[in-house]
Design goal:
The protein is an alpha+beta fold. It is built from 19 helices and nine strands. The strands form three sheets. A four-stranded mixed sheet has the order 1-4-6-2. The chain has a three-stranded antiparallel sheet with strand order 5-3-7. The C terminus is likely disordered.
């Protein structure tokens, strides 16, 4: 019926039939067979071609986007690994026509083994140099640069070809001579790797390199933390609807309760489905006990901290089934992907004041730009998974640790230039958040805490206002320091 009405409507305006047909077909999501029959009823075959071409173009755009993102940061590594293979094939083709005394210029396997030993020694020295000059998360970018990967591939190919050259009779493409050509390429790559390691172990260059290589990690951490945020949303919805679940910022010390504590350090995870099933099956009588959630899912806790409490109603006795249901639904897990990414962001932020003190202002700005891009990738993935929920959610540990590190650096800043440069990190965090995020309150809290410790932060209020919100420091409190309050402009 709907297809017939659409066909009649299209026939009334023949000059715009193709464009309108494409819009109708995309909205109705028809199969290819039904789409052809719909076009026959409308008598606009051009619409089918336009719709199919549009769908193919969008699919190709998505494919190119995924392929480009996969190669981002990995293209030099892939090229360095493919270069020795291509050179080996070319040398094998060339050496088939070699003759005379040139054949005796080949190398034996012991020479290839010695070359690999030299490469290992140079690589170890470069890694030690990076470990001494850079924090651990940033130094990981210098563990296996593209030139080192190409050198190792060249060395192993050289050893393999040299071993093949020991066979009798000797193959027609003279493997020992090919190994000698690979030895020349190996020397060039090791020399280039040595020079490049001296350049890339600087703080700015290493920070930019690690940001290019850790974009996939930023997306994975954002996707994983978004799942924890969705669990927090589910718990808040249950607390708004149900009578047996409540959310408190701290334990009810005066109430009689059974405390559920974290057995290990990690992130809180609460299975709302188990709580709902337990309540529906009568394992959780609302008139006898309530569950007070102290820490929402997505927040980190230390071992031994109270996460939730089972509180009896009145003089009721707590049932063991209710306690077991709560303990099964609440757990603490180690999220290494989220922790590693947060450590990387904090390490990048700590490099900014050090570069300013060393006089490398341009390098500090490059690190801020690289960190902003990495956090932007993380927050975009996080926002795409949040859905349409509007409200306060747990702040990403990467943003939290970055803001804390920047606020601490502001308190220890020795010059106005250092304060202005470090403040760019906080500006970047504020640019990435929205009014519903807890980033604004986090920034105000951290800056106020450091403001009380340092009297050199008088310029902070003019740095904070960004993107339609700001921090109003308010009148001085009893300690003589202004107290922050979040305000919307």
């Amino acid at each position: 019926m709907a297809a017939s009405l659409d066909a009649s409507a299209l026939k009334e305006r023949p000059e715009r039939a193709s464009t309108r047909f494409a819009a109708y077909a995309e909205a109705m999501a028809l199969s290819p067979e039904r789409l052809v029959r719909f076009a026959e009823d409308c008598d606009v075959p051009g619409g089918v071609e336009q719709f199919v071409s549009t769908r193919r173009a969008r699919a190709m755009e998505r494919l190119v986007s995924h392929f480009r993102f996969y190669l981002q940061g990995r293209a030099p590594l892939l090229l360095a690994a493919l270069l020795p293979i291509c050179v080996t094939i070319v040398l094998a083709l060339v050496c088939q026509h070699a003759g005379g005394g040139v054949i005796s210029a080949g190398i034996s396997p012991p020479v290839a083994i010695g070359a690999l030993a030299v490469l290992a020694a140079v690589h170890i020295l470069s890694v030690q140099l990076a470990a001494q000059r850079l924090p651990g998360p940033i130094a990981s970018a210098a563990v296996l640069p593209s030139l080192a990967a190409g050198s190792y591939v060249t060395g192993f190919l050289m050893l393999l070809v040299a071993l093949v050259g020991q066979e009798k009779p000797v193959p027609s493409w003279h493997p020992s001579l090919v190994a000698a050509g690979l030895l020349l390429l190996f020397v060039i790559l090791v020399f280039a790797m040595t020079i490049n390691s001296l350049r890339t172990t600087s703080a700015a260059s290493a920070s930019e390199a690690v940001c290019r290589r850790r974009r996939r990690q930023a997306r994975r951490a954002g996707r994983r933390f978004a799942e924890l945020q969705r669990r927090a949303v589910r718990i808040q919805e249950l607390a708004d609807k149900g009578d047996y679940l409540r959310v408190f910022p701290s334990p009810q010390e005066a109430a009689r309760r059974y405390a559920i504590r974290a057995r290990a350090s990690g992130f809180v995870q609460i299975n709302a489905r188990l709580l709902v099933e337990g309540q529906s099956r009568g394992r959780w009588p609302a008139e006898e006990a309530r569950l007070d959630i102290v820490v929402l899912p997505g927040l980190p806790v230390a071992a031994g901290r109270e996460i939730a409490s089972v509180v009896p109603v009145g003089d009721a006795t707590l049932a063991k089934e209710a306690i077991r249901t709560a303990e099964r639904a609440i757990s603490v897990r180690d999220e290494r992907e989220i922790d590693r990414f947060a450590e990387l962001c904090a390490a990048l932020c700590s490099e900014v004041p050090m570069l300013v003190r060393a006089g490398d202002i341009g390098g500090a700005h490059r690190v801020v730009a690289a960190l902003s891009g990495l956090l932007g990738e993380h927050m975009r993935r996080l926002a795409s998974k949040q859905g349409s929920f509007v409200g306060a959610l747990p702040v990403s540990p990467a943003v939290m640790q970055t803001v804390e590190q920047a606020a601490s650096a502001l308190a220890r800043a020795a010059s106005e230039r250092e304060r202005v440069t470090v403040a760019l990190v906080i500006d970047a965090c504020l640019d990435l958040c929205s009014r519903e995020d807890g980033v604004v309150a986090l920034v105000a809290k951290q800056l106020a805490r450091r403001r009380r410790r340092s009297a050199s932060l008088g310029a902070l209020p003019r740095w904070v206002p960004r993107r339609g919100f700001g921090v109003d420091w308010g009148p001085p409190n009893r300690t003589g320091c202004p107290s922050p309050a979040r305000t919307w402009e």
